[in-house]
Design a protein that fits this description.
This protein is of the alpha+beta class. It has 4 domains: 3-37 and 138-225, Calcium-transporting ATPase, cytoplasmic transduction domain A (Distorted Sandwich); 50-109 and 235-305 and 657-899, Calcium-transporting ATPase, transmembrane domain; 310-336 and 515-649, HAD superfamily/HAD-like (Rossmann fold, 3-Layer(aba) Sandwich), CATH 3.40.50.1000; 341-512, Calcium-transporting ATPase, cytoplasmic domain N (3-Layer(aba) Sandwich). Helix 23 (651-692) crosses helix 26 and helix 26 packs antiparallel against helix 27 (784-807). InterPro entries: ATPase_P-typ_cation-transptr_C, ATPase_P-typ_cation-transptr_N, ATPase_P-typ_cyto_dom_N, ATPase_P-typ_P_site, ATPase_P-typ_TM_dom_sf, ATPase_P-typ_transduc_dom_A_sf, ATPase_P-type_domA, Cation_transp_ATPase_P-type.
Length: 909
């Protein structure tokens, strides 16, 4: 018979196991025989093909054409040095391609390492003891414990089940969860049996125990894995923007190069000279390092976030974070410490301190002790609890005031879910069966017909109900989470669907969960950054408002509070209108209602980040622009649906991540400005060569030395620069904002670029005229004076780029504020630039490779005022830009106005 057709005991025997699990020796032997419980990654494109693609994308094709033309020119007119240019271009293609390939491999390794911070774990019975092991360590015969929110790590057969419901959609395609039980099945196929849990499915509700019978590639999921491509990488808006920008620059380079080649032919410029011009223009304008630098910025930002307890699961999310305008956050554990303690209780129709003895209320404490799903251990005879902090608080109160015997095996259970908002368990006792229930008062009180008082139980009249509701309000206003406790002795043969009726109300527990210490500062930072924060909680509205006031989320007298019941009645249009309220909270909201809130915010044009930890949070996490799962309390399902995971479950870590996301976009702009400046400085001398019939000031091979040599490390340094201190004092940038906006283009092309080009041409003519050259005089490529002049032009660009890299560290702050330190990569880049230009200028090898010649000290002295002048003009521009920005982006810092501050159109000029 098949394993699903056997009884639970027969199923255990069929895999040579027992209800206490495997012994360690057997598990080690089986791991060696069956291998780790994992499905091998899907086959990827061969590395050689991926490497080849790095040499055939648009930029590479353009440079291949340039190299081919250079070799053609050398064949057509030997002796002009064009072969050397062709070789240099090929070297650039190879270096750029190899770097990009290495960078892609680094991304894969980095993301794999970051994902390793969240190993999939499972509770396993080994030698009769519950252990938490990595899912890869499972072997056939292991007995595992499963609860709501867990992913099923292997194919297994249920041997115990309490209210178990399974989402099998990942394997079977069924959209609705199905129940699971441990009874033998008459189904022919295991996949159809209710006692079979397949790897890749998830537990939606309840709990159970199961014995593993297939692992890794032998599971049903493993057999279909090679047919399924799970997840497809999608470029972020920033990647698409840079690809768009790169194509425009590439086409512009080809167009300008072809135009001037045609113009040169018309005016009678010799072919090789004309071709040098065209190749020089193409080489000058193609941003070879743009895409690798983008990837590097995202990777390093993700690594920095990981060090600050934020795990990025999808690399493009780093950039998307910078656009977030709304954060929808849970309360418990995210805004609060999730370290709960019962502070007040309501017994005998009176509120009292939770540490006050309460004789005659053993039933209240018994409900608190038994109605829970905690894991209990007693090392050294001391009770240790693991599980829901709320349940731990209730059990600790009961153990402190009225110790109860340890609970035996329960007979039945109704698990807690967001619709019922209560949990019930049934335990046998000497007189039959007792049902214990806890949950939200509005779901428990209507089921109650009597109340426990010190003198005994009596009917629950309207006066008592009113007193209970008043007590709830009083505790909620004090910021306490209110839980109602009730019980019932079940009559014999009571139908299961009637068990949660005619309950006896036992009392209320008011549980304190203090706000996290630095969450108020994080909320204030969001307000200053123009980011709206919306609390979504399952707690009572009074509790939600009280906590919101404590952390500065609510400051007004009448915040808009929408309950889950009201949310169900609201039409989508009404919900969107309600979201216009200056201060809004959602209370008593079910996890699956988050989806509606997220969709409404998206419809209003917000960029939404939402937190979640449960199975029912997964739809909202997927729907949001940024889904944020909890690393400590979050379920496996929530983590897999999310874009990022908070390893510390802390709201302040979200704010940190948003700041990093904003910095990424800003850094790409810094890098782009820096690159475009030297591109202009390389282009203008080529145009002067074509239009004014002067010697070519900068050879193509020398331009390549700047692009891929001297400027490479400093450009990468800008790509990993930390964000400006004022980054979180500006509104979020609009998603439609272009990377190369008007401000960046003007600064790079018509301000710094033209200045740098003027300095390069000035020193070029300074050397020529000082050596006796006159306009119209022909100079050969090997003429010492000409080589010194081009060397001076090259050196001017390198020197001013050293100045420029410090100017580009901020578009607004003074270079005297940003200073020279704080970015070791930039300092190493400057050292590399100095070393390379000295090698190029003053060594025989550098002179031979790049057609340079040593220049006298007077040339450097000539350039110093230009370097100082570049600082002066940029500092002047920054001064006026800061004044303009202060007037243009001023918005009130009060709670109401900041929440709805519009996205910034130009936050980083």
């Amino acid at each position: 018979m098949k394993i699903h057709q056997l009884s639970a005991s027969e199923a255990l025997a069929s895999v040579r196991s027992s209800a206490q699990g495997l012994v360690s020796a057997d598990s080690a032997a089986r791991l060696a025989e069956y291998g780790p419980n994992r499905v091998e990654p899907l086959a990827r494109e061969h590395w050689a093909l991926r490497l080849l693609k790095e040499f055939t994308h648009l930029f590479s094709v353009i440079l291949w054409v340039a190299a081919g033309l250079a070799f053609l020119a050398d064949w057509y007119d030997p002796g002009e040095g064009m072969a050397r240019v062709g070789v240099a271009v090929v070297v650039v293609i190879l270096l750029s391609g190899l770097f990009s390939f290495w960078q892609e491999a680094r991304v894969e390794r980095t993301l794999a390492a970051l994902q390793g911070l969240l190993p999939s774990q499972v509770e396993v019975l080994r030698d009769g003891v519950v252990l938490k092991l990595a899912a890869e360590a499972l072997v056939p015969g292991d007995v595992i414990l499963l609860a709501q929110g867990d992913n099923v790590p292997a194919d297994c057969r249920l041997i115990e089940a309490f209210g178990l419901r399974i989402n099998r959609s990942t394997v079977t395609g069924e959209s609705r969860p199905g129940s699971g039980d441990a009874a033998p099945s008459a189904e022919e196929q295991a996949i159809d049996a209710r006692n079979i849990l397949l790897a890749g499915t998830s537990v939606v509700a309840g709990q159970g125990r199961a014995v593993v019978f297939a692992t890794g590639a032998h599971t049903e999921f493993g057999r279909i894995a090679h047919l399924t491509q799970i997840g497809s990488g999608e470029d972020s808006p920033l990647r698409r923007e840079i690809a768009h920008l790169s194509r425009r620059i590439a086409y512009l380079a080809l167009g300008i190069g072809a135009f001037f080649f045609a113009l040169g032919s018309l005016v009678g410029v010799p072919f090789w000279r004309d071709l040098i011009l065209s190749i020089g223009i193409i080489v000058a304008l193609v941003p070879e390092g743009l895409l690798p630098t983008l990837t590097l910025s995202l990777v390093l930002a993700a690594q920095r976030m990981a060090r600050r307890n934020v795990l990025i699961r999808h690399l493009p999310s780093v950039e998307t974070l910078g656009s977030v305008t709304v954060i929808c956050t849970d309360k418990t554990g995210t805004l609060t410490e999730n370290r709960m303690r019962v502070r007040r209780v309501f017994l005998d129709l009176q509120l009292q301190d939770a540490d006050t003895p309460a004789p005659g209320h053993d039933l209240f404490f018994r409900v608190a002790r038994y109605c829970q799903d905690l894991t209990e251990t007693r090392p050294d005879g001391r009770l240790e609890l693991a599980g829901d902090p709320l349940e731990i608080a209730l059990v600790e109160m009961a153990e402190r005031l009225a110790p109860q015997p340890a609970p035996a095996s329960r007979s039945d259970e109704w698990p807690f879910d967001s619709e019922r908002m209560r949990q019930s368990v049934v335990y046998p006792d000497a007189d039959g069966q007792m049902l214990y229930c806890k949950g939200a008062l509005e779901r428990v009180l209507p089921l109650c017909e009597s109340i426990v008082l010190a003198g005994g139980a009596q009917a629950l009249d309207e006066a008592a109900r009113a007193a209970i509701l008043r007590a709830q309000e009083e505790m909620a206003v004090a910021g306490l989470r209110v839980i109602a406790l009730a019980s019932r002795r079940l009559p014999p043969d009571c139908p299961r669907d009637a068990e949660e009726q005619a309950l006896c109300f036992c009392g209320l527990a008011g549980i304190e969960d203090p706000p996290r210490a630095d969450v108020e500062a994080a909320i204030a930072t969001c307000h200053g950054a123009g980011i709206q924060v919306i609390m979504i909680t399952g707690d009572h509205p009074g509790t939600a408002v009280a906590i919101a006031r404590q952390i500065g989320l609510v400051r007004g007298d009448a915040p808009r509070v929408i309950t889950g019941a009201e949310l169900r009645r609201l039409h989508p249009a009404q919900l969107q209108l309600a979201l216009d309220a200056p201060e809004i909270l959602f209370a008593r909201v079910a996890a699956d209602q988050k989806m509606r809130i997220v969709e409404a915010l998206k419809a209003k044009g917000y960029i939404v980040a939402v937190t979640g930890d449960g199975v029912n949070d997964a739809p909202a996490l997927r729907a949001a622009h940024i889904g944020i799962a909890m690393g400590i309390t979050g379920t496996d399902v929530a983590k897999e649906a999310a874009d990022m995971v908070l390893l510390d479950d802390h709201f302040a870590s979200i704010v940190t991540a948003i700041e990093e996301g904003r910095a990424v976009f800003q850094n790409i702009r810094k890098f782009l400005t820096y690159v475009l400046v030297h591109n202009v400085a390389e282009l203008i001398p080529n145009l002067a060569f074509a239009l004014f019939r002067i010697p070519l000031p900068l050879m193509p091979v020398q331009a390549l030395a700047i692009d891929m040599g001297t400027d490479s490390l400093t450009a990468l340094g800008l790509g990993v620069e930390r964000g400006d201190p004022g980054l979180m004092t500006r509104p979020p940038r609009a998603r439609s904002q272009r990377l190369l906006n008007t401000a960046v283009a003007l600064r790079a092309y018509l301000f710094l670029g033209l200045y740098e080009a003027a300095a390069a041409l000035a020193v070029f003519f300074h050397v020529l005229l000082g050596g006796g050259w006159t306009y119209g005089m022909a100079l050969g490529g090997d003429d010492l004076l000409y080589r010194q002049a081009t060397t001076a032009c090259l050196s001017a660009i390198v020197l001013l780029q050293i100045v420029n890299v410090f100017l580009c560290r901020s578009a607004l702050r003074s270079v005297f504020t940003t200073g020279l330190g704080g970015n070791r990569l930039i300092l190493w880049g400057v050292a590399l630039e100095v070393a390379l230009i000295l090698l190029i200028d003053y060594t025989p090898l550098g002179n031979e490779l790049l057609g340079t010649a040593p220049i006298p000290a007077s040339v450097w002295l000539f350039l110093l005022p230009w370097a100082v002048g570049m600082i002066a003009i940029e500092e002047t521009r920054k001064f006026f830009a800061r004044r303009h920005l202060a007037h243009a982006t001023e918005f009130p810092v009060g709670r109401t106005s900041v929440r709805h501050a519009p996205p910034s159109k130009e936050p980083f000029p």
